[in-house]
Amino acid sequence: MPDPSPAPAVIYKICPAVLWAQAEAEGVFTGAPVDHADGYIHFSTAAQAHETAARHFKGAGDLKLVAVAVEPLGGALRWEPSRGGALFPHLYGPLPLAAVRWVKDLPLGPDGAHVFPDMA
After folding, report:
1. Alpha-carbon gap, residue 33 to 19, rounded angstroms
2. Would residue 112 count as lying in a domain?
């Protein structure tokens, strides 16, 4: 059953640093290869980000965690069921960098799991 809780004000994108550097140079993020293949940019909530990293970025270093304000995304952002019916944020269109609140490193810890920064 989909999560009935209200949408958060901030969502998160886990992104290879090289792709994020390209986005900063171009002034817009159009997505990673998986986003292009699916037709939208994948995001996670704060509660979903750790599992997203473990499932889809296991062992990957040199990542960025990008915090994005929901409000500026408007109707291009949709909440759609994914893992076990949980609603995930999907952006149908490019991510304007003006919506980005911050970008932080997402390194691997000694145990091989990603070490998340303070997400506040």
Report:
1. 10
2. no
Residue 47 belongs to domain with CATH number: 3.20.170.20
Q: Which residue in the block uniquely carries the two structure tokens 């296991």?
A: 58
Rounded Cα distance between 73 and 75, Å, is 7
pLDDT at site 51: 94
Q: Is 89 helix (H, G, I), strand (E, B) or coil?
A: strand
Query: Do residues 43 and 68 touch, judged by C-beta distance below 8 A?
Result: yes
Separation between Cα atoms, residue 43 and residue 9, nearest integer Å = 13
Is residue 46 in some structural domain? Answer: yes
Range of the domain at 59: 10-105
pLDDT digits (tens, 9 = 90+) for 26-40: 999 999 999 999 999
Sign of CA dihedral 44, 57, 42, 11: positive
pLDDT in tens, 53-80: 999 999 999 999 999 999 999 999 999 9
Phi-psi region of 18 (alpha: psi -120 to 50; beta: other; left: phi over 0): alpha
Structural domains counted in the chain: 1
